[in-house]
Fold these 2 entries.
Entry 1:
Amino acid sequence: MINETAYALGANRSCIRDLFEYGCQRAAIVGRENVYDYSLGNPSIPSPPAVNETICRILADTEPLAVHGYTSAVGDLSARQAIADDLNARYHAGVRPEELFLGCGAAPELVAVFRALAVPGAEILAIAPYFPEYKPFAESAGAVFKVVPPDVPGFQIDLEAVEAMLTPRTQAIIVNSPNNPSGVVYTEETLNALGALLTRKGQEYGHPIYIVADEPYRELTYGCDAPFIPNIYPNTIVCYSYSKSLSLPGERIGYVYVPRQAADSAALYAAVAGAARACGHVCAPSLWQKVIARCAHLRPDLAAYDKNRKALYEGLTEMGYEMAKPDGAFYLFIKAPGGDANEFSERAKAKDLLVVPGDGFGCPGYFRICYCVSYEMIQKSLPVFRALIENR
Ligand code: PLP
């Protein structure tokens, strides 16, 4: 016999993957340059050159067993110290290495955090639009997954809607800023108000409501900074990843930060480590821990993303498409002309333009495009976008 839930998750591919596979098939027929694939968020800028140089230096200078050996489950002290130093230089956050747990990217870190918080009956809230994987992560942890309706059209956070969904069983709310799929950066004002609400309701319920800050896009901002949420609300657990900031999505490295000022922080940290262990975590990749120990301070060169963002935001807005201002990440979340994003996505697909309908992000009627693509592809695709909005 086979576990039905696991089977269903494995057998039903995501709509994003389906579109991506379709794009590959079409590329084989009509040529890659004639498919405008905005489906998948794979970084398109290279890692900073110092990353690869550092790998070479580590391989040349370090004894092989030390490069590839197991590390402690929470991660090498040198990497955790480098991350703490970097966070403290940027945010004056007072981070200590013992508050950091090195993980294999934001996805498994979120799973560990959800499992650490999944007491019987626990509810975990996400704010629409949200990263679709939150649902299987939370539900497989045993939590009830609830979605706060979107705050249209700006995609900040509708606090009345959050308050209406809080119950004494609410353990956490996931905050993803800069946001996938909207590209919106939550303002300090929004986060202050959310923090005040969670403080008040936590006092009322007699237990903390944690913010799980999912931050793979923290450094990907254009003309603004993403506030560092632990400085705003102490009961914040950060799940961070270098997948996007250093363009290392296949290497699987990141960290969980459990600030000591968070309620029950020592037990929480132990529970995150325990939940990771129960999922088979042994340690984050050893070589990459050594790279991060030397490269935690590096930042991406966002010029190419910014150029793409401007070309699309300005070009599409001028045609009449509507979207929230995309200040971060590498996505635009656009209102479907005519209102039906699935119909729009199908019409676009017929012209080899691949966009993802918003239903899976908890936001029907919108579609996502991911602009980590070539500038040339954007230029070639703009007339197709124009034809789609003009010939409805
Ligand atoms: N959270 C969000 C919002 C994402 O967009 C992604 C990946 O695209 C992840 C988490 C998972 O990232 P990682 O590669 O660090 O597991």
Entry 2:
Amino acid sequence: MSKFLIRGGNRLSGSVKVDGAKNAVLPILAASILASEGTSVIEDVPWLTDVETISEVIIALGAEVRRESETVLHVDSRNVKEWIAKESLVRRMRASFLVMGPLLARMGRARVALPGGCAIGARPVDQHIKGFQALGAEVEVGRGHVEARVKGNRLKGTRIYLDIQSVGATQNIMMAAALAEGRTIIENAAKEPEIVDLANYLNAMGASVRGAGTDVIRIDGVESLRGANHTVIPDRIQAGTFLIASAMTGGDVYVEGAISNHLKPVIAKLKEAGIQIEEDVNGIRAIGGPGNRPLDVKTLPYPGFPTDMQAQMMALLTVLPGNSLVTESVFENRFMHVAELQRMGADIKIEGRTALITGVPYLTGASVTASDLRAGAALVIAGLGAQGETEVNGLHHIDRGYLKLEDKLRTIGADIVRVE
Ligand code: UD1
């Protein structure tokens, strides 16, 4: 098992470049199987384990995926014939469920294993299923999978109101509706930048998706889609992680490629804590830290504070003076990092979905374990700021979403190594 060894206390400084967004690539690769003609060229693809998994899922369905270079993928899905997604792969990663909508639309039927529970909550797929049913599919749930079949020739456009602004359900329904007959309107849709990126790719494939990025998305179905070229948006969560890492060490880091519009709530909170932030068209710079004022942070769907930044922000709050509050309102069980931060000397109390963090002067190095991807990032941030040596275990979680994190952090001055 590999782990990170981090010697805390180095002030981070310099420039670090952000990769393409994992959470944009996963739905885009799922959507690529909608193309019955032509091939897709997807650029700025970070070759993360989650990206490998979704590639394996679509390869098992009959797509050809070729890596032209480190960050460019070619996808040819003309020969997709299979309608059952490989269960072992789907169980490995919840986002594999995103092939359900495209498969159903392209093949007329689809079977995908239920993603099941995971470390950060129950995460059901009821809104996805409600969408497929509204589009005219017969859906059966049982024996560990969801099976859907189109009644008649094609899915039929309709109006769908989502009870929850689910990112995955919005994406799955958009992809299915792209090949449906007539117009689909998704109300109370999620508004994340990754949804806009998916809509842009679908439109490049010949779809007609309007309104992505607002809570009403209109999709006029077309008969077929073709492969298209697309460049993935920068990863706002990775960018935010570097900004907070800089703040934790009192550093001066420029995150090249970060889009400030995608990071408004994170930037606002860092400024509120007393970090100097400079934004330009090419990136964002964070100067100073860790900050001198406590914060009140509540996670919400976009454009609110992202749940995927909650753990990293909490790591910073552990050393801000006074009492900070963090309320997790997107997932019901996303405080797994708290026990690990406590091992490093953090003063945190949890009451339901809220954590009360009382700042301590400094954290101390300890042996800690990542329970999920963003919890892992939080522990790395904590280790960078802590006194002494921190050992972070559970790197397979971190590798799902951060490409060579230790190399990137070393280029801006961190003392971090991976040991096997
Ligand atoms: C996506 C992101 C994930 C992020 C999350 C919220 C990807 C690959 N993953 O996950 O990193 O943390 O958005 O920003 O993009 N829910 C239901 N029923 C459903 C679907 C969701 O109750 O049918 C609930 C979930 O349990 C959760 C909330 O809605 O409490 C938000 O989930 P959702 O937006 O769907 O997250 P994902 O798309 O799985």
